[in-house]
Amino acid sequence: MIPHKKLIGIDWGTSSLRGARWGDQGQVQESREFPRGILTVPPGQFEAVFNSLFGDWMQAPALCLISGMAGSRQGWQEAPYCPCPAGFAELGQHLLWLQPGRMALVPGLSCAGLDGLNTPDVMRGEEVQIFGALQWAGRDSATLVLPGTHSKWVQVQGGRVTHFQTFMTGEVFALMSQHSILGKTLDLGGAFDESVFIQGLAQSQQPGSLLHKLFAVRTLGLFERLSAAQLPSYLSGLLIGEELRTQADTGPVIVVGSQALTLRYTLALQHLGIPSQSLGEEATWAGLHTLASHLTNPA
User: Fold this and answer.
1) pLDDT at 223 (0 to 100)
2) What is the overall mean pLDDT for the chain?
3) What is the pTM of this model?
4) Which among 65, 34, 57 is positioned nearest to 132, based on CA atoms?
5) Are 122 and 83 in contact (CB under 8 A)?
6) What is the percentage of the chain residues whose pLDDT exceeds 70?
């Protein structure tokens, strides 16, 4: 890392903003979280919002790395994607310095799809979690899944991301449960039902179209086979199962995300006979800390 500077890490997403700062022993000394995702920040106000929430941390000599959607076209400043294959060295070379040697945006990753058309795929923020998870697991090669609004399946070889795929699983769940006729029969306030989730997961692995299986969410409610409170768990199992159906031949998986989502993916992987381990927000901080340790020049 650039010498004689404290490290500050920022994870600035679409809906939330988190920050951490490290002590001299390489441990997180303090963290903060605010509901100030990039969608809440007016154009041109990112620096002002940052200073109001983290300005006191920047009073001492510090290196601040900012990952996530702050580097998107709708964010503080657009940081061009770093193409895969990429590891810490490539990320460091593609940092967008807002203040040379002091504050930089982590660029995110891009890769070409395997669909024969080289359709591009992208991520922002997950790349830091990936490398942090590998640090925690003590591995330089792995298959990872980062569930969320747009789930990412990632292949890492020799410490470099070689390829990844994005699945709109979380967004489709939100659309189906809130903005379609299926939502008329769902109670989103119900508790997660593990057995019903597995039922939806199992149905997703059967032959047939997902579009047809989705309509069963409505009819299972109409004929009282499942209650309104159970139906969200069934829908979740159906959609996550469809995502996992394309990963049937994968080996052990590292799952990185929120506790609620890692629980569901771990259950699904276990049901399908795929070993897994899970990590939470510690992966982000581990990734930013390790990225900083690989930097030798300010820009």
Assistant:
1) 95
2) 93
3) 0.92
4) 65
5) no
6) 97
Strand 253-256 with 120-123, pairing? unpaired
Q: Are 1 and 61 in contact (CB under 8 A)?
A: no
Question: For the segment 194-214, what is each residue's pLDDT rounded down to a tens digit?
Answer: 999 999 999 999 999 999 999
147 to 191, 192, 208, 240: CA distances (angstroms) = 20, 17, 24, 9
Return d(Cα 140, Cα 65) in angstroms, integer: 22
- According to the model, what pLDDT value does residue 25 have? 80
Q: How far apart are CA 186 and CA 24, in angstroms?
A: 50
Q: Cα(236)–Cα(238) distance, rounded to whole angstroms?
A: 5
Q: Residue 298 is encoded by which pair of tokens?
A: 């300010």
Cα distance from N-terminal residue to C-terminal residue, the chain: 12
- Antiparallel, parallel or unpaired: β 142-146 and 103-105: unpaired
User: What is the per-residue pLDDT for 247?
Assistant: 82
Report the candidate in 206, 126, 210, 207 with the shortest Cα–Cα distance to residue 165. Answer: 126
Rounded to the nearest 5 percent, the helix, strand and coil shares of the chain are 40, 25, 35
Query: Minimal CA–CA distance to 71: which of 7, 110, 127, 13?
Result: 13
Count how many residues are written for the chain: 299
* Separation CA 85–CA 95 (nearest Å): 16
**Amino acid present at 194:** E
254: CB partners within 8 A, 6+ apart: 133, 134, 137, 142, 143, 144, 145, 276, 277, 278, 279
Please, which residues have CB within 8 angstroms of residue 129's CB and are 6 or more apart in sequence? Answer: 146, 256, 283, 284, 287
According to DSSP, the residues that pair with 7 across neighbouring strands are: 63
pLDDT in tens, 236-278: 999 999 999 988 677 899 999 999 999 999 999 999 999 999 9
> Assign residue 96 a region: left if phi > 0, alpha if psi is -120 to 50, beta otherwise?
beta
Structure tokens at 135: 């640090």
